[in-house]
From TrEMBL:
Organism taxonomic ancestry: Bacteria, Bacillati, Bacillota, Clostridia, Lachnospirales
Source organism superkingdom: Bacteria
Protein's UniProt name: DUF4262 domain-containing protein
């Protein structure tokens, strides 16, 4: 039986809204708030990514995790997850995203160094910020 994606992914980021045309400019460079809605039907937390790797890669990662949950796999805070990238694991860390708990995908840098290490590339360290800090409210819609 072929699995069906039955959740949605929101990607809040800098740029124009497809619905209303307003322009968002507040996200810190290289960041976004991409997250799923719908994992609760599997009694599982939703997923979040904050490192802006492009839409295709964000969708690939979040949908891969969603399909694994749909197939019965369960993830929790602190899990190291293989199979997303060939050369490294990712880590799932519990964060608050607009008032709910999600599992944030934490990706190591190109040297396989995770963000809490002082030697991690600066862009990847942005993954440790609280969700609200990614888009300071004093720089909202244009």
């Amino acid at each position: 039986m072929k699995q069906k994606v039955d959740w949605i992914i929101h990607c809040c980021e800098n740029g124009a809204c497809d619905e209303c045309g307003r322009v968002e400019t507040n996200f810190l460079p290289y960041t976004c708030n991409a997250h799923t809605h719908g994992m609760e039907r599997y009694e599982h937390m939703d997923f979040q990514m904050v490192l802006h790797l492009g839409h295709r890669e964000i969708m690939r990662i979040l949908n891969t995790l969603g399909l694994r949950v749909q197939a019965g796999e369960r993830f929790k805070d602190g899990d190291m997850v293989a199979g997303i990238y060939e050369d490294c694991n990712i880590r799932l860390t519990k964060y608050i995203e607009t008032g709910r708990w999600v599992l944030r995908v934490i990706i190591p840098d190109k040297y396989n160094v995770f963000p809490e290490d002082d030697h991690c590339m600066e862009t990847y360290r942005l993954q440790l910020l609280k969700t609200d800090a990614l888009c300071p409210s004093d720089r909202f819609w244009v």
